Amino acid sequence: MISVVIRNKNQVTALSFLLKNLTERYADDIAEIIVIDNVSIDESRPVTLQYGARFVTIENFSYGGSANRAAQEAKHPIVVIFSAHSYPVSHDFFKLIKERMEANPNLAGLRCLHSTNDYRNYINKVSAKIDPNKSGLIFSGSAFSKAVWEKLPFREDVATFEDKEWTLRVLKAGYKIDFVPSIFHYEIQRSPQQQFFRFKNDVVGNYQLWHQDVSLLQALKSLLVGLWNSCKNCLTELKYAFLRFWFLIKFILNKPKQF
């Protein structure tokens, strides 16, 4: 059977839709739903309980730590993990995952499809060994084997990309990670504060995992590019704000004939 685990922090609207989706469309395909919550201050807990799911609070959040907690809490051999702001779309989403996982005991995980990149790599058969970053596990809309996790848990000392780091280790250990044509949607709007938090983790994670170093020249270039793009975007917005205003004035003065 399948355990669905959802990572959440103050995403009650998105979480409610995901839970509604799971319980109304896929109730026969999944055995349990668990919300791993990072100390939300919204209504995430009562909404979770309303849909009959289990609510687990994790206070000292890390990406790898929350992934390990998700696996620990799951009672079943196949674990499917979502972020609260993602949700399955295809009617056979979980059926395909179950079929593929049960057919191959050497399968450590499956990456579902949600983006142009996913679909291209899937169609072009670009394996996780060739491209572990874009064909490996992604921790929103992926499935993994709890039995493999018990041998190779997620590392908790990586800033981010805990899914990609795990991908590299399980491939090295002889397991396989593949695509599955289970389709989901990923939708999030991050605040500037959230984007900066993600940026910091990505810089550290890229250095730890992909050995992408940063020089003073690159940092300065990043600042200048950011300033240039901000000015350019501001001028573009002002231009089209005036163009829209001028169009409305002309429309008011010379309205077309109504039908």
The global form is globular
* Low-pLDDT residue intervals, each spanning 5 or more residues: none
Strand order in space, largest sheet: 3-2-1-4-7-6-8-5
First and last CA, distance: 59 Å
Average pLDDT level: 92
> If helices are DSSP runs of H or I spanning 4 or more residues, what is the number of helices?
10
* Protein structure class: alpha/beta
Number of strands: 8
Proportion of beta-strand residues: 15-25%
Largest sheet: 8 strands, mixed
Order of helices and strands: EHEHEHEEHEHHEHHEHH
Tell me the layout of helices and strands.
Blueprint: E1 2-8, H1 12-25, E2 32-37, H2 44-50, E3 54-57, H3 63-73, E4 78-83, E5 86-88, H4 93-103, E6 107-113, H5 116-123, H6 132-135, E7 142-145, H7 146-151, H8 162-172, E8 176-186, H9 192-210, H10 216-253
Parallel strand pairs: 1-2, 1-4, 2-3, 6-8
Antiparallel strand pairs: 4-7, 5-8, 6-7
Short description:
By secondary structure, this protein is of the alpha/beta class. The chain has helices at residues 12-25, 44-50, 63-73, 93-103, 116-123, 132-135, 146-151, 162-172, 192-210, 216-253; strands spanning 2-8, 32-37, 54-57, 78-83, 86-88, 107-113, 142-145, 176-186.
